[in-house]
């Protein structure tokens, strides 16, 4: 069950949009690129959780950015510029059908990378399609799993306990090397104290 009234759907949607915004911070769109509207989080604890999740994504993203195979895969998808981009991304990330926290975060970050490339190519329609497709996939395919695992708050402590074996090298066509997986695990270790802080704060 999800943690005491935590709106895991709102947090997930807000996290995806935050990831995209973070990656768009240094670019200026030339066309009309509108981010999907998501419901605001009114509870301070939920906003704090969102902030910590976003920090974890940035840590993971920094490691992924040093993986050439990852960047090559993103570039290859971006060049296709059609409605199959997101479905092909999903096929790569969840190639064996297994869902885990690491793969969800990789998906969100990869969507952010693709969204930026659509902005740079001035393709607002493809930009919107990718984000809407990811939001729909999150709601229909990932949200149930997230809730069954205890909600987003469980992801922080769970990711710190991941071994390299837990995040299969097959994720996104094997782009996560052993070195990057190790960095991924170490990079989010500091998040282990966050659950305690969130549970203690009122």
UniProtKB/TrEMBL annotation:
The chain crosses the membrane at residues 181-199. GO terms for biological process: extrinsic apoptotic signaling pathway in absence of ligand; intrinsic apoptotic signaling pathway in response to DNA damage; mitochondrial fusion; regulation of apoptotic process; release of cytochrome c from mitochondria. It holds the Pfam family Bcl-2. One of its GO terms (molecular function) is BH domain binding. SUPFAM superfamilies: Bcl-2 inhibitors of programmed cell death. Keywords: Apoptosis, Membrane, Transmembrane, Transmembrane helix. It comes from the Eukaryota. Belongs to the Bcl-2 family. This is Bcl-2 Bcl-2 homology region 1-3 domain-containing protein.
């Amino acid at each position: 069950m999800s943690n005491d009234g935590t709106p895991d759907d709102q947090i997930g949607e807000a996290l995806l949009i935050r990831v995209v915004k973070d990656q768009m911070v240094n670019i200026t769109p030339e066309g009309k690129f509108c981010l999907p509207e998501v419901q605001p989080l009114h509870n301070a604890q939920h906003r704090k959780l969102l902030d910590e999740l976003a920090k974890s994504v940035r840590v993971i993203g920094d490691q992924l950015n040093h993986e050439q195979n990852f960047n090559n895969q993103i570039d290859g998808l971006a060049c296709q510029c059609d409605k199959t981009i997101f479905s092909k991304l999903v096929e790569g990330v969840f190639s064996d059908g297994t869902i885990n926290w690491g793969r969800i975060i990789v998906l969100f970050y990869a969507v952010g990378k693709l969204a930026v490339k659509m902005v740079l190519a001035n393709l607002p329609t493809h930009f919107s399609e990718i984000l809407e497709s990811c939001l729909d996939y999150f709601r229909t395919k990932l949200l149930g799993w997230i809730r069954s695992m205890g909600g987003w708050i469980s992801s922080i402590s769970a990711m710190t306990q991941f071994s390299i074996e837990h995040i299969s090298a097959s994720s996104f066509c094997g782009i996560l090397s052993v070195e990057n997986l190790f960095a991924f695990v170490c990079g989010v270790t500091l998040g282990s104290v966050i659950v305690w802080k969130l549970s203690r704060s009122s």
